[in-house]
Amino acid sequence: MSFWSRIICEASAKYNRAIPHHDEYKAWFEEAGFEGVTQYVFKSPTNPWPKNKVLKESGKFQLLAHLEGIEGISLALMTRVLEWKPAEVSVLFAKMRPELKDRSIHSYQPHFVVYGRKPQRPRTSILSGTLSTNIGPTPPSSLRSVPSGELSSKASAGFVE
Question: pTM for the complete prediction?
Answer without folding.
Answer: 0.63
